[in-house]
Amino acid sequence: MTHAAVEVWWAKIGDVRWQLVAELDAAERGRLTAYARQEDKDRFLLGCAVARRVLGNHLMIPPAEVRLDRTCEDCGRPHGKVRVEGMELSVSHSGDLIAVAFHPSTPVGVDVEKVDPGIDADSLATVSLAEVEAMELAKYEPADRARAFTTYWTRKEAIVKATGDGMRADLRRVVVSPPDQPAALLEWSGYDGRVQLVDLEAGSDYAAALAILTAGPVTVHSIDAAPLLSGQPSN
Ligand SMILES: CC(C)(COP(=O)(O)OP(=O)(O)OC[C@H]1O[C@@H](n2cnc3c(N)ncnc32)[C@H](O)[C@@H]1OP(=O)(O)O)[C@@H](O)C(=O)NCCC(=O)NCCS
Ligand SMILES: [Zn+2]
Fold first, then answer.
1. For residue 197, which of 108, 178, 183, 204 is within the disulfide window of CB 3.0 to 4.6 Å?
2. Distance from the CA of 93 to the center of ligand 1, in angstroms?
3. pLDDT at residue 145 in the model
């Protein structure tokens, strides 16, 4: 077991530069084209570019030569968990933020969500929270419920993204600690339980969490990706 730190690289939507498209592979360019909204294109491009430039530096190869595999385990199309030989990684984007987490050997899952005060947290709770979590959520004032729900959501999503289950998992069975308590997985029947869960600081409009599939202690380094994205790739 290695004790290397998890690196979480953060980009903002304003870091986008269209020269970065040159570093994408054909499947990524296809997905980029398919997004209708400019902000979806920008977030996707930035997730790809951060992954490629960080991995390119690590492997000492140009970003365009990094072989990312996004094969979906359900349908085979290139929209699944990002995989690469020799590194574990996870991508998330929401609102103005893009996060990409890396660890050399331990699976990681990151999830960032912009808090939308307009969501109907109570109905979302019926499909994604365990009973005990929904009861906890109900204790919050209606005005605070969107944030509390989003904290629950990112903690659960980080875990199912780390395992690679994604939306295949029934989030109601992934029971995590209440939003005002330190992040932790409390119960997920059938899972062996090895996970460290931490909330990430992402500003007052966002909730974000990171799951690392290890029982051991973890160190997390948050890194601003802007300098990495602004220049020419170093390889
Ligand atoms: C994991 C998932 C639940 C996250 O979605 P989200 O919270 O809306 O979006 P995020 O920005 O946080 O995460 C998106 C990233 O999750 C990653 N991802 C996709 N499937 C994943 C999985 N099963 N496990 C872990 N990560 C996954 C991808 O890297 C994706 O980044 P990309 O768009 O740059 O390729 C996503 O898989 C999803 O929404 N799936 C919907 C179901 C679907 O379309 N399934 C297709 C089946 S054919
Ligand atoms: Zn699919």
1. 183
2. 10
3. 97
CATH of the domain at 9: 3.90.470.20
Ligand 1 atom closest to the Cα of residue 93 is: 11
Q: pLDDT tens, 25-68?
A: 999 999 999 999 999 999 999 999 999 999 999 999 999 999 99
Domain that residue 80 falls in:
1-105+217-235
Question: pLDDT digits over 101-117, tens only?
Answer: 999 999 999 999 999 99
Of 56, 89, 49, give the one whose Cα is nearest residue 70: 89
Ligand 1 atom nearest residue 48's Cα: 34
Residue 31 CA from chain centroid, whole number: 18
Indicate the DSSP class of residue 113.
E
- Residue 81 Cβ < 6 Å to ligand 1: yes
Say yes or no: CB of residue 62 within 6 Å of ligand 1.
Answer: no
Which of 210, 198, 196, 23 is closest to 100 using CA atoms? 210
- H helix intervals, the chain: 26-34, 38-59, 121-128, 131-138, 142-163, 226-230
